[in-house]
Specification:
- The protein is 26% helix and 15% strand.
- It has an 8-stranded mixed β-sheet with strand order 5-4-6-1-7-8-2-9, sandwiched between helices. Strands 11-12-13-14 form a 4-stranded antiparallel β-sheet, covered by helices on one side.
- With 446 residues, it is of the alpha/beta class.
- The radius of gyration is 23 Å and the shape is globular.
- Helix 5 packs parallel to helix 7.
- Strand 13 and strand 14 form a beta hairpin.
- The protein has 2 domains: 317 residues, Alkaline Phosphatase, subunit A, CATH 3.40.720; 73 residues, Arylsulfatase, C-terminal domain, CATH 3.30.1120.10.
- The N terminus is likely disordered.
């Protein structure tokens, strides 16, 4: 039987309907990754963490749509080393970065992060991702460019290359342009916000909203509102581009809130004083302290279809050095062998995971007062020990039962063997770190 003309037409036209043009955009199979890193934003500065006077509706919604990790630690209580850890998957002391670039320069401190270090952008770029960085850098300025760290597109402050203003909506708007330009391919982007670091520069609208508060609270609440709105600009862009369902969004902060100075009201109208009244959520210590208030910060993950919505994970211990190997696993590539972090991808998918490696901290040039005396810290399992460089002063806490590290519940005397073991572990680790700056990463070799 001969086929009819209508049937022949159907057979001939079917391929034209079924197959898209060769140059048609293809939706990304690999998930996009957006890493939003706030500055000095305390664990207790979110209303979903119990704050009674600060409001963070966009972050609260983000947490309700994903996982709110309760035991996430950065690897330094100050900016530059914390960011180095998040970028490289290695403890910042490995590079001699134990304090903030441009503030002080101990003998081991280079002038910039080693561009030979593993970085998340470079590794994901090798997997086909377009990479971007918008906002604060603060990992040194000198010979390296942002491209040397694997970053395709950037606009930064405290860093090399094209600049972006820290205030207003400059940072999220630049990030939105990047998202819109790359919505049809996999991308990784750092959106590193200024809030809530000094100098404060809240918007007029946010200040008006909080005019009923006292001057310090008004400024700080306005800054947090502006930061929360900037997170919203990023989330709205993902929805508008139709890629929110295939995008992992991470929100965190580089360290805990800064300690305010008593009776310092700053310069009227400029908000450059110590208006910091951020909260740690009951954790001991603040910025520059190795106690939890300085290094335990918000960590919220939204990943539709993978991360269960509305989950609070208070069991899994995550750290900033885990980001690189975990992001690599998401992209389908292997991280370098020398990273200090662990691939904790199952935790991002809702599983309760127990890490196998200890966590180490070091801070240089800290104050010898109150909660700021420890030079080193180590966490292994549920135990956390803080100590001095000589190991002669130590405190020991079992964190699940004493997250506030209440000094009245210091367990050092009750568990001398644990103190001895962890002190030795911390001192031996510290002995492996460089004591002189790498000449290749210094403007003036020493």
């Amino acid at each position: 039987m001969r086929p009819t003309l209508a049937l022949l037409s159907t057979l001939l036209l079917a391929p034209l309907v079924a197959w898209p043009a060769a140059d048609a955009p293809k939706k990304s199979v690999q998930p996009n990754i957006v890493f939003i890193y706030a500055d000095d934003w305390g664990w207790g500065d979110l209303s979903c963490h119990g704050n009674t006077w600060l409001k963070t509706p966009r972050l609260d919604k983000l947490a309700s749509e994903g996982i709110d990790f309760q035991q996430f630690n950065v690897l330094s209580p100050v900016c530059s080393p914390s960011r180095a850890a998040a970028m490289t998957g290695r403890f910042p002391g490995r590079f001699g970065i134990n304090t903030v670039f441009g503030v002080s320069k101990p003998p081991e401190m280079p002038d910039w992060l080693d561009p030979r270090a593993p970085t998340t952008p470079r590794l994901l770029k090798s997997a086909g991702y377009r990479t971007g960085h918008f906002g604060k850098w603060h990992l040194g300025e000198g010979k390296p460019t942002m491209a040397d760290y694997g970053i395709d597109d950037s606009a930064v402050y405290h860093g090399p290359g094209p600049k972006v203003g820290p205030y207003g909506n400059d940072i999220p708007n630049q990030a939105v342009k990047f998202i819109e330009a790359n919505k049809d391919r996999p991308f990784y982007v750092n959106v590193w916000l200024h809030e809530s670091h000094l100098a404060h520069s809240p918007s007029t609208e946010a200040m008006a909203r909080w005019k009923h508060l006292d001057p310090r609270q008004q400024v700080y609440a306005a800054v947090i509102t502006d930061g929360d709105n900037k997170v919203g600009l990023i989330l709205d862009a993902l929805e508008r581009c139709g890629i929110a369902q295939n995008t992992l969004v991470v929100f965190s902060s580089d360290n805990g809130p800064a300690k305010p100075k008593a009776n310092d009201q700053g310069v009227p109208g400029k908000y450059r004083g110590h208006y910091n009244v951020g909260e740690t959520g009951g954790l001991r210590g603040q910025k520059t302290s190795l106690f939890e208030g300085g290094v335990r910060v918000p960590f919220i993950v939204r990943w539709p279809g993978c991360a269960p919505a509305g989950l609070k994970n208070d069991a899994t211990v995550l750290t900033a050095v885990d980001l690189l190997p975990t992001f690599c696993a998401i992209a389908g590539i292997n991280p370098p062998d020398q990273v200090d972090g662990e691939n904790l991808l199952p935790a991002l998918k809702g599983e309760s995971v127990r890490r196998t490696r200890p966590i180490f901290w070091r801070i240089s040039g800290n104050r010898r007062e109150a909660d700021y005396w420890p030079d080193l810290a180590v966490r292994e399992g549920d135990w956390k020990l803080v100590t001095t460089f000589d190991g002669k002063r130590s405190e020991l806490y079992e964190l699940p039962s004493n997250r506030a590290e209440d000094v009245a519940k210091n367990q050092a005397k009750e568990h001398p063997q644990v103190v001895a073991r962890l002190t030795q572990l911390a001192l031996e680790w510290n002995a492996t770190l460089p004591t002189k700056a790498d000449p290749a990463c210094s403007a003036t070799p020493r």
